[in-house]
Design goal:
The chain has about 475 residues and is an alpha+beta fold. It is built from 14 helices and 13 strands. It has a five-stranded mixed β-sheet. Helix 6 packs antiparallel against helix 11, helix 12 packs antiparallel against helix 13 and helix 12 crosses helix 14.
Length: about 475
């Protein structure tokens, strides 16, 4: 007989409130890992007004992801709050709504369009090289996270809007300024036990409202300009110069009268998912490599072999040859996933392996715990990029325990773009510079916000 959620083991909470006030949100992912070690890979978390089902078992995580959107959905609260932030697209859409958004966005981000967009992306890498050359010449330590974020902002904005934003050199941008107010507030509201902002508006809430309004206005201007370009030059429909045109064209091909609101929602989704997540992955990768000299040298050797005399990957085809660098990226995601915690709800009653899950049951999934177990990966606590190569000799390699891009029908459509950006940046960095971690390694901490970020750390570059 299946086990009911209320009968599962779990941490003992306080009367009435359970474990509600014992959770430190910035460290939630680590707390869950500790409890999983103690209570198993499926347990109950008493949050006072309801029991949360917590899962870290890879096979169950895969089942949840593969049975979306029919069997499981994202937290309804999260979807509502993200929509309050002006974002309604493929990331948070569900059911039939999601089925309408998915093919349009996926087509705009497919490999063909990615290759077509590369000439617009490559100059951004050149600007980053110039910036890092200046930093290497000065010899001063700096916070590299900011440069990585500006790179991904410029790439994503260029890709999404066909607008050549240059925050790397100009240190700012209207959309970026508004996004910095919107996305942290979305995460804060998702994790609020009580939505006080509906009763009393703080200064932060008012700034959030204004930022959402301005961000929507700016994006609507980009959409109107894109529609006008397509009307004036119908040939652009064959090779759309940016995602905004690709989404509009794809919607027409799907015979979907897609609204400005839907186009805007998907563009903001691309900014939200593409900016922060890729920058955070690069940030963690650089941090981890500071303790991995052999891996670093192997990556540098591959960059030299692929790029030859070039400073960076000026040709799109160069990137596909960087297989070891890609493996290092996967290892970084295994140790430091951008989104280790996700929230779901059951759409209907279901038996999830040995557990009976009622319709509406809230589920918290943690995606790192299983990936660091030897039962899923050989020498799981060691960084081995070669485990991801076809000729790998690692005997244990359970890909079910690795899900940084989700799974099933909801597999992230931006996956190829993220890996492309990682290959571009890491090959350029290691081809041209030695990097030294100035901040003590052990003083850098994980912190959950909208993504799992690191505390700020400084590096120093030296030109090779």
């Amino acid at each position: 007989m299946a086990i009911k959620v209320k009968d599962l083991p779990g941490p003992k909470g306080k009367p009435i409130v359970g474990n509600l006030f014992s959770l430190d949100l910035p460290q939630l992912h680590n707390t869950i890992e500790g409890w999983s070690d103690e209570y198993g890979d499926v347990f109950r978390l008493n949050l006072g007004i309801f029991d949360q089902l917590v899962i870290t078992r890879p096979s169950m995580l895969q089942k949840i992801m593969k049975e979306r959107p029919e069997g499981f959905t994202r937290s309804l609260k999260m979807n509502r709050i993200i929509r309050e932030g002006g974002v309604h697209g493929v990331f948070n859409a569900e059911g039939e709504d999601w089925k309408k958004h998915r093919p349009i966005v996926a087509k705009g981000l497919d490999v063909k369009h990615q290759k077509d967009f590369y000439p617009a992306i490559e100059p951004v890498l050149g600007r980053l090289y110039k910036k890092w050359s200046e930093r290497a010449e000065s010899g001063e330590p700096f916070y590299i996270q900011k440069d990585l974020l500006r790179f991904t902002v410029d790439v994503t904005s260029s890709l999404a809007f066909g607008y050549p934003m240059n925050t790397i050199e100009e240190q700012g941008g209207a959309i970026q300024d508004h996004m910095e107010k919107v996305f942290p507030m979305i995460f804060k509201r998702i994790n609020m036990p009580v939505p006080w902002y509906k009763v009393y508006r703080t200064k932060e809430d008012k700034e959030f409202d204004k930022a959402v309004e301005e961000m929507n206005r700016l994006v609507d201007e980009f959409i109107a300009a894109a529609r006008k370009r397509l009307e004036e030059n119908p040939d652009l429909r064959k090779n759309p110069p940016s995602v905004i045109e690709a989404i509009i064209v794809a919607a027409e091909e799907e015979e979907d009268d897609i609204s400005t609101e839907n186009v805007r929602g998907n563009l903001l989704t691309l900014l939200m998912a593409g900016e922060d997540t890729t920058a955070v992955t690069l940030n963690w990768m650089i941090y981890l490599l500071s303790q991995q000299p052999e891996v670093t040298e192997n990556m540098r050797r591959e960059a030299n072999e692929v790029l030859g005399e070039k400073k960076w990957a000026s040709a799109y085809e160069d990137n596909a040859k960087m297989r070891y660098i890609e493996g290092a990226a996967f290892e970084s995601m295994r140790f430091k996933p951008v989104a280790p915690v996700m929230l779901f709800q059951a759409v209907e009653d279901v038996e999830l392996e040995e557990v009976f899950v009622k319709k509406g049951q809230r589920i918290l999934t943690q995606h790192r715990h299983g990936s660091l177990q030897d039962e899923n990966f050989s020498d799981a606590t060691k960084m081995k990029p070669e485990r991801w190569l076809k000729e790998s000799r690692c005997p244990v390699h359970n890909t079910e325990a690795f899900s940084p891009f989700g799974g099933g029908a909801r597999y992230c459509p931006g996956r190829n773009l993220a890996i492309l950006e990682v290959r571009m940046v890491m090959s350029m960095l290691l081809k041209n510079f030695e990097i030294e971690l100035v901040t003590p390694y052990d003083s850098v901490n994980e912190k959950m916000a909208f993504t799992m970020m690191s505390s700020p750390y400084q590096v120093r570059l030296r030109k090779l």
